[in-house]
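Below is how a single chain appears once it has passed through the pipeline. First comes the sequence as given, then the structure the pipeline wrote out for it. We keep one example in the README because the format questions we get most often are answered faster by looking than by reading.
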Amino acid sequence: MSDYLHKSHNVTVLMYHLVFPAKYRRTVIDEQVDVVLKAVCEEIAERYQLKFLEIGTDKDHVHFLVQSVPTYSVTKIVTMVKSLTAREIFRRCPYVKKQLWGGEFWSDGYFAGTVGKHGDETTISRYVQGQGKEYHKLHSDHQLALF
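Resulting structure:
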């Protein structure tokens, strides 16, 4: 479960849903890789200001629910987790490197989304509207642009 992170001048609860596909979408994530992945993530959490709230694996991709501090950008978190987990998986499970022809473990792409502790976009919007006596919406853009 997520906690409020108290630092000297701020309190945060930043959570991200990250999805990393394996290189070539190969089915290389088995029970042994699961054990290594969990152990490495626990080591990362001890060393860095990251908390893995949940880790879920499929045969060709991994889901992470991560809580962090504002000093770590999403890109920095992704780079850190991808590089450290890939290096250790290749070291502890050498057969995986052979399955991937000696290349990289993770695909270059990833999915990253923010996760709210107290609700979705609609809940937050209602909360903001209820804070003052007269609420004036200055901007709203819920339509995706094609260009």
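DSSP finds four helices and six strands in the chain.

See the next section for the split statistics.
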